[in-house]
Amino acid sequence: MALRDADTQKQVKHMMAFIEQEIMEYYEKKEKQIEQQKEIQMSNLMNQARLKILRARDDLITDLLNEAKQRLSKVVKDTPRYQVLLDGLVLQGLYQLLEHQMIVRCGKQDFPLVKAVVQKAIPMYKIATKNNVDVQIDQESYLPEDIAGGVEIYNGDHKIKVSNTPESRLDLIAQQMMPEVRGALFGANANRKF
Amino acid sequence: MMSQSQGIHQLLQAEKRAKDKLEEAKKRKGKRLKQAKEEAMVEIDQYRMQRDKEFRLIQSKIMGSQSNLSDEIEEQTLGKIQELNGHYNKHMESVMNQLLSMVCDMKPEIHVNYRATN
């Protein structure tokens, strides 16, 4: 009798241990899940914060470029400054394209100004390139109204275009200088390891 | 003759007594088993409740710290953005002037590799 009692007791204890083991595993798993959830949330928060900061930086850069465009359109309205600018824009546009036949397109209001500039530029171009050239001014289409100024230069069949307006120059330059611009505006990146 | 039936009677009685004792023992064992099971269940339930309590404690601690953390991070982020704005305002003009001068001041020149062809 005593032996069978001990046996049954052992059985009961075994079953108890088994059930308690199950319970323990269940709660350990739940605890792990909560820890994981916490870490995921943490990571999400950090990510959101980072994105917020990056977006703020981006907005500031956009503000800068918009302000720059405003100031450029002021330069265009300042006739002596614009004259100097236009001389450079036309000549450099021609040097960039280097075609034998070129067409210069400008804003409607700039036509007389550009005509004079082109006349000045042609001999300079001929000397610098040691080549003859035929430069016309486009009288059929002009640059749209919302472009402040500058010129677009095409080759004879309009297949190649050089855009030398203050806006297009600003876009190009800003894009190329973006790392330096960011560094100057926001300070060097502390996380950069190279 | 009398002794035979007496003997049988005694045997039968002994048999009955033995059967009764067996029944009693089985009943007692059944009761003991039931009791042991009940005690075991109680212990298990206690264990489960204890684990549950521990778990809820951990859970509420973690949830509490969550909201603190998110407030802290929000604060830090706003601070960093303010810093950003300050830096921007300080250096904006000089960067602007640099950009504008690059756009407006140009020295037209032909590409270094240009060769005149005829």
Quick structural summary:
The complex is a heterodimer of chains A (194) and B (118). Chain A has 194 residues and is an alpha+beta fold.
Descriptive report:
The complex is a heterodimer of chains A (194) and B (118). Chain A is α+β, with helices and mostly antiparallel strands and 194 residues long. Chain A has two domains: 1-77; 79-173, hypothetical protein PF0899 fold. Chain A is 70% helix and 10% strand. Chain A has four helices and four strands, in the order ααβαβββα. Chain A has helices spanning 2-77, 79-97, 111-129, 166-186; strands at residues 101-106, 134-137, 151-155, 161-164. Chain A has a four-stranded mixed sheet with strand order 2-1-3-4. In chain A, helix 3 links the parallel strand 1 (101-106) and strand 2. Chain B has 118 residues and is mostly helical. Chain B has one helix at 2-104. Chain B starts with a helix and ends in a 14-residue tail after the last helix. The mean pLDDT of chain B is 90.
Which short descriptors sum up this protein?
heterodimer, A: 194 residues, alpha+beta, hypothetical protein PF0899 fold, 2 domains, four-stranded mixed sheet, rod-shaped, B: 118 residues, mainly alpha, ATP hydrolysis activity (chain B), V-type proton ATPase subunit G (chain B), proton-transporting ATPase activity, rotational mechanism (chain B), V-ATPase_G (chain B)
Outline the low-pLDDT stretches of chain B.
Answer: none
User: How is the main sheet of chain B built?
Assistant: none
Proportion of residues in extended strands of chain A: 5-15%
Beta content of chain B:
under 5%
Topology at a glance:
The complex is a heterodimer of chains A (194) and B (118).
Chain A: H1 2-77, H2 79-97, E1 101-106, H3 111-129, E2 134-137, E3 151-155, E4 161-164, H4 166-186
Parallel strand pairs in A: 1-2
Antiparallel strand pairs in A: 1-3, 3-4
Chain B: H1 2-104
